[in-house]
Amino acid sequence: MIKNTNGSNFSYLRNWLNTDLDFLAESFRDPLIAQSFTDLPSHCGQEEVSRFVSNTLRLIEKESAFHLAIVNGKEIPIGGVSVHNIIKGHKAEIGFWLDKDCRRNGIGQSAVRLLLNHYKSLFHLQKFVAYTLTDNFRAIALLEIIGFKRE
């Protein structure tokens, strides 16, 4: 668990749990979220979501990727962040998404900053890379606000 201590409106980042399957299945039906997950079918059900959670836990054990839930003060997941394709001492890729009711209020920005700070120090990373669709203007704006540059 990575606690948020900056006072924004989410509490912490944590591993996905089997109790999160319904939330994930519903979230992955949102076209804006689904387009970010190339490894999930467009209409995924409990079985695919369960595999996603199991796979994220295996990747964490190998320290090759970390997919984490963004959890609010009521202990409810409201989105996710990830760091993956980690090359320790060099760089990693990140990803993020939020439930549609939680967008545009600083949660994504705070969660991504927390993710970057934690994994930068943990793996001595020099650079983070994020890929997004060219028409995902909210994600592009968030990345630019926190210091990412287009390449």
From TrEMBL:
PROSITE patterns: GNAT (PS51186). Belongs to the acetyltransferase family. RimJ subfamily. The keyword Cell inner membrane does not apply. Keywords: Acyltransferase, Transferase. The keyword Acyltransferase applies. It comes from Candidatus Komeilibacteria bacterium CG10_big_fil_rev_8_21_14_0_10_41_13. This is N-acetyltransferase domain-containing protein. InterPro entries: Acyl_CoA_acyltransferase, GNAT_dom, N-acetyltransferase. One of its GO terms (molecular function) is acyltransferase activity, transferring groups other than amino-acyl groups. Pfam families: Acetyltransf_3 (PF13302). Residues 11-151 form the N-acetyltransferase domain.
